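Bench log, entry 3. Co-assembly request; chain sequences pasted below exactly as received.
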Amino acid sequence: MGAIEDYLKKTQPLVDKEIEKVFPKKIGKKWLEFALDKADFAYDEETITKSAAEPIWEFLNRGGKRWRPALTILSCEAVGGKKELALKMTPLIELVHEGTIMADDLEDNSQTRRGKPCTHLLYGNDIAINDGNLMYFAPLTLLYKNPYKLSEKQVRKIYDLYGKEMIRVSIGQAMDIYWHKGSKTSISEKEYLQMCSYKTGVLARFAAKLGAILGNAKPEQEKALGKFAETIGIAFQIQDDILNLVGEEFQKGKGVGEDIHEGKRTIMALHALQHAGEAEKTRLIEILNSHPASQETINEAIEIIKKNGSIEYAKEKAKTLVKQAWKKLNPVLKESTAKKTLKDFADYLIERKI
Amino acid sequence: MGAIEDYLKKTQPLVDKEIEKVFPKKIGKKWLEFALDKADFAYDEETITKSAAEPIWEFLNRGGKRWRPALTILSCEAVGGKKELALKMTPLIELVHEGTIMADDLEDNSQTRRGKPCTHLLYGNDIAINDGNLMYFAPLTLLYKNPYKLSEKQVRKIYDLYGKEMIRVSIGQAMDIYWHKGSKTSISEKEYLQMCSYKTGVLARFAAKLGAILGNAKPEQEKALGKFAETIGIAFQIQDDILNLVGEEFQKGKGVGEDIHEGKRTIMALHALQHAGEAEKTRLIEILNSHPASQETINEAIEIIKKNGSIEYAKEKAKTLVKQAWKKLNPVLKESTAKKTLKDFADYLIERKI
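Structure output for the full assembly:
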């Protein structure tokens, strides 16, 4: 466990340095002319810095584990590719991810992120939406300017991957939003896992496949790495949901039970709804649909979930999914430090306490 | 004038049919498996339809001129390409455009769009943000699935174009947002035109360049078509701003003077601020920064703008810009019906009353 934390701690500042190359903290003519060509009229660098670079970097500087970039680097290394190249391309995955959570916060009407007020509360909805979008696109300079001389085939594969995964992310989010409006009465576990796969698994898969493409992986390696990463993304989401309900340290972040307040149909809520008696089931639906603000009501829902063994069930589910994906990945990768770290990585994400 | 309106009226339903192929009104397994592969777990088509397809089609069905797709088709034809292929690829430009206006409405906190309540008011902020994003990505199936067998080179060029133009759109919007917060005291006309070029010109350029690429245009044709379209995009925006202040029929839509309410630094506001006396200038800034709701105060600002000849100035500016761009386009295109229509098109967009 400590080893992975160390690994992430070492990787994070390196990733952030690459992000800064792709989207600087201060926007000047140099970046604008590189990314967008010379101005036809006149650039206003100060405005662009204030309206885009500052809010985005305020957000990035709050931290975050940067575990998706780590997946890119490890996947590239595990197929024999160069970690330096993978590192340089990580902004493509991390900026997109950060963009989705900036948007998520606004969509969920969240108050805090990483211990600070959400971007829409600090800078306004307009800036949060627009800068979230900008983060989806800004790293595309890594493809259309191709500064690291990827092959035509690599660029095309990464573009294709980007297109498909971005649609999946939006579709996953569409499902999540619709469900926690309480608009659908019964959701199956498979549907839930599909949503998770698209909402959270997808960017992990994107990260791993990006690394595989950069390392010129064999098709079966790329596929298995993608699937493994997707699965640890799902497991990460499940663990996130668990911590949201019972995490001791979670108070520092989003607030315990915010998912109940948002009415989220997590795998635990679904399991509890399936296994609780009639009265408890009715009460849990009632609470989820009422989007309660009172901690007492939220705790009541958490109790119903705990009582039905749903937390333990979710933990087991996460472990099983990862185990299955590892079984498919293991035989297609030669032994290496990167391979070993990938395995530890999955365990770390499932076991983490924060 | 009538001819262009007829042309657009004929083109619109054809474009919408292509959009429907790319993103259907009802999401079923067929589309999901085509665009996103077979589900690892299970799709919930009903939820995806309700949460994504319905709000998006409710929005698309309100109308809109579809003039950007028309630019794609005409540009392709004008360089000797096939209009059938161009038509099939138009969802790439139109869906992206519609996505930006769904997001804009939320960012500007607008109330109505095309005579109906904005999407965020009908379906909630979460759905409006997410579906706006989905519209940016959904048409990428036209590239990564490549159903119309474009060449490798064409696909790459269109991806590259997409990347760059999407960053430009976000940067243009970032400027516009920051300015109408009143956060910058003096904006030059060149900076304003740059913002316009990025916010509105860019998707017109994208449209024309898309057509040019599909028609295998020569580099100088692609460039001149892009510039011409960008310019008519800017002119369209200027005309939009003019109509917002003095358009007789505008009541049906956004409401007269909403730009004043939003504090927008339009080219007219900038011109008036430059030419008005001290007292009027101070008053106009005061009004723009106060985001007035009262029609009386809004009218006061419009009067200051009118009095300083700023509406006439804006009209002239739009015409001059288009004239200059046409001068560069004219010599690189052979005479053709498409070329003639392109010219008429520009005149139509500048002269339009609604």
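The mean pLDDT of chain A is 93. The radius of gyration of chain A is 21 Å.
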